[in-house]
Amino acid sequence: MITAENAAHFPRVSKSPEPPDVRLQGVTKRFEDVLAVDELTLEIPRGSFFALLGPSGCGKTTTLRMIGGFEDPSEGRILLGDHDVTGLPSYKRDVNTVFQSYALFPHLDVFENVAFGLKRRKVAKAEIAKRAREMLAIVGLEGMDRRKPRQLSGGQQQRVALARALVNHPRVLLLDEPLGALDLKLRKQMQLELKRIQHEVGITFVHVTHDQEEAMTMADSIAVMSRGRIEQLGGPTELYERPRTAFVAGFLGVSNLLGGTVTTSGAVRVDGTGEIRVDAPLPPAGTRVQVGVRPEKLRLDDSAANSVSGTVVERAYIGVATQYVVDTPAGRLTVFVQSSGTAAEGDAVRVSWDPESTFVLEEAS
Amino acid sequence: MTLGPGARWLLRVATALTLTFVYVPLVIIALYAFNESRIQAWPIEGLTLEWFGRALDNPGARDALWLSLRAALGATALALVLGTLASLAVARYRFFGRETISFLVILPIALPGIVTGMALNATFNTTGISLGLLTIVVGHATFCIVVVYNNAVARLRRTSQHLEEASADLGADAWQTFRHITFPQLRSALLAGALLAFALSFDEVIVTTFTAGPDQTLPIWILSNLSRPNQLPVVNVVAVVLILLSTIPVYVATRLSRDTGAVSPTAGAAQAAGAR
Ligand SMILES: Nc1ncnc2c1ncn2[C@@H]1O[C@H](COP(=O)(O)OP(=O)(O)OP(=O)(O)O)[C@@H](O)[C@H]1O
Ligand SMILES: [Mg+2]
């Protein structure tokens, strides 16, 4: 869809880190007695697809609205590039937003919606028409110029909202659960499409979602938020394989957590069984920790370095895998096995896993 | 709910009685306006358009019509500006005392006209403002603002604030956002409010008697000429004009707000002020 001609408008931004497109420095937001965002400090590198992920009410929308200029932070500073925009009204900020409700202007047609931002910036008429058409082509809405928003399907409205924001070539595009109103199939399709479009235009995307799968599919880096704070920030693989807190481990899928104590020999003595080896930095000996393993990293045999014995208490076929629940002295473990497996309920089994698949959480005291 | 045949029959009769009760007198007045005879008595002997010509030639009636039109237009214009601004403040901004302001704006429609009139009259007298068109406009604006405000607030509550945020997000300042986004959303609600305000002002009597001074608006002219048997046919004609000029806007306004869902507050307000 991108042609040599329109590519000129979207010079590929090299993913060099300097300067970050968005910087939040100690940003706090209070609504009367609610602390919505709590001293958030964050840098979003140029050209990245950044996701803010967290459960309902954790402050994602509030954070996004402060970057967009719809709420003023109670404390802290917001920078876009090298430009301090704290307190600047939204129409003076070089960011555009895709609202969850789309907020398309109902009395304007698709073309006029997309042209709205360019008109406000007094771009020449011919140029407006050219850029709006190009943008509509990129989002796959050629020939729909004269439709009113109410004559479009949810997915099409979503694309118009995207085109209306992107046509202005903002420094940053903010998306607040842009796919929330779409059905599952369309959502999956739009996830890939959004990723493609971001790749094409090279603009920094800040994407708010409470869907961990969506964040993992689309984002280069993810900030997991909880109660107004960032719990952990990193790439999808890192967050999944090396979560640092029980909250992150639990939010990004199923995990098995075992309590234990760090030993002097650099291993962890798991309560109720023996020592296991961990391929990650450990806190000092004697510290209480939790070690975790994802269910699909567990095997129902004795082939890996760490192992415990237990009894199968449940077996269920879940489509892509078979799920076993195994009772061990260390606690109950959930195991996903690709092949259907031979163990049955009541069988004694050994469960094993690699040290590299083990992550360590410091136990909250 | 289902009704038995008896209850349904009763309802039909009640409805018919109510409508007869309300509309027969109006029809009779209208018929008298075409009555050949100067004396109001049944049956009407013949029909004529003579009284319409006489009414047109009557300087008192003409002046009254002209004053009423100017007063209604003035009050409507004032109400449009102030009512729209108040509705934007209440529906779009959070500030201390917002609910109180909203209540105070609506209150004049419920206050007895005679109290509003008295109070305004006292104010104009003590401040030395001479009574005339201007004071009528101010007096009428007190209740005209309410209908504009109610229509506009109802519409603003139904349109997403996100539209205005999206507009600002795309680089429009406050004025551009109002002009390109908020106003187009409000337009038909404001038109409905304006039509109702016009109708309310056009047939208002009580507040006007306190604020008009020696000038006569159309309803007041009718009131002061009713007792003159000579003038009666002309009064009937003027009454017909008054009925038309105040019901047509109300009809159009109801049609407009039916499309836009703002019916109940305005209909309630119109009744409270005795528009019909
Ligand atoms: N305008 C407001 N006035 C008062 N409290 C607010 C306001 N906006 C947000 N909050 C509160 O701030 C907290 C964070 O809200 P926010 O909308 O940022 O959450 P979120 O992470 O976007 O949640 P969701 O996934 O449900 O959209 C919540 O407790 C919410 O109740
Ligand atoms: Mg939200």
How is this structure best described in words?
The complex is a heterodimer of chains A (365) and B (276). Helix content of chain A is 24%, strand content 32%. Chain A has helices spanning 4-7, 60-68, 110-120, 125-138, 154-166, 184-201, 212-218, 236-241, 246-251, and strands at 22-31, 34-44, 49-53, 75-80, 83-84, 95-98, 172-176, 204-209, 221-226, 229-234, 256-262, 268-270, 275-276, 288-293, 306-317, 322-328, 331-337, 348-353, 359-362. In chain A, strand 7, helix 6 and strand 8 form a beta-alpha-beta unit. In chain A, helix 3 packs across helix 4 (125-138), helix 3 (110-120) packs parallel to helix 5 (154-166) and helix 4 crosses helix 5 (154-166). Chain A is elongated, with a radius of gyration of 24 Å. Mean pLDDT of chain A is 88; it is low at 1-15. Residues 261-276 of chain B have low confidence and may be disordered. By secondary structure, chain B is mainly alpha-helical. Chain B is 77% helix and 0% strand. The chains are: A alpha+beta (365), B mainly alpha (276). Chains A and B meet through strand 6 and helix 3 of A and helix 7 and helix 8 of B. The structure holds adenosine-5'-triphosphate and magnesium ion. The site of magnesium ion has 2 residues of chain A, from helix 2. Residues 60-61 of chain A line the site of magnesium ion.
